Every structure is written in C-alpha cells, then in structure tokens.
Amino acid sequence: MPKSPEVGSPVPDFTLPGGVLADGDFQRRDYTLSAEQGTLLVLAFYPGDDTSVCTRQLCSYSSGLEAFTDLGAQVWGISPQGVDSHESFARRHGLRMPLLADPDRTVARAFGITAPGIGLRRAVFLVDADSILRWKHVSLLGVTFQSVEELSRHLAAART
Question: The dihedral of CA 47, 19, 42, 156: what is its sign?
Fold first, then answer.
C-alpha cells in the first residue's frame, strides 16, 4: 500500500465522479485535483454516507463552509459510496460541498489511508494552490474529526 504523502510534497493527482447540491439541484460532474491549480483544497476522506460521525463531520463542514471560502479554499468530501448515495446524503442533510465517489478506493490507496475492515481511515489533507500538501490528519480510530476552526487555522498558515 502506498504511504500517505508527506507534508511539503506534491499530492497525487486524481479524477473522481461527484456532485454538489446547489439551489436544490444535485449537479454531477468529474472533479480533477490538477484542474484546481491555484486553489486551496480541503480533501476530507470519510468512511461512509449517513454514518453518525461522518454525518456530524460533513454537516459541520457544510454549515461552516464560509470559513473555508473566506480563506479561498474549497472542501471536497471523498468516500467509497457512489454518486447516487452522495446525492441522497447531500439532500438529506443539506450538504453544500462537492461529494466525490471513490468506490474502488483508488484515491484512498494513493493517499495511504485504506484500512482493513473499515475501508478507509477518516483523514483530512490540506493542499495548497500548487498541489503541495501543507497539513494532514489521519485518524487511527475515526471516532472524532478535525473541526472547522482547526482546519481554518491550518489553511490560514498554508496561504502565507
């Protein structure tokens, strides 16, 4: 299994299908990391749609989305469920960030966060405008998640 990228190194490029809920419409498209050159990205890997901790995490990031956008960052949620599941999840909870589908866990493996039994570890990677990893947190158990405030502090540092 590939190791997780180290802080200060480039992150692996990828393209995943996904969608975002906007004005009541779930807009589907492919999301490519390298196409976001020039933008800060928060890549929030989570084990599953509609699970208790994942729901709290994604709802927190959605309700705090302005904290990220004010820092010039986008948030992408990434999990193994398909785009149909993501659409239901986004509609059920009013999630406002793109949710990307990694059903074969190719991207999770490239980021070194797959785990036997649970599929993938809850992890957050902050990627700068040049696709360089500026901060990461990979959870061992996944029962907690990084807060909007904590991520905002690290994003602010990544901008300088």
Answer: negative
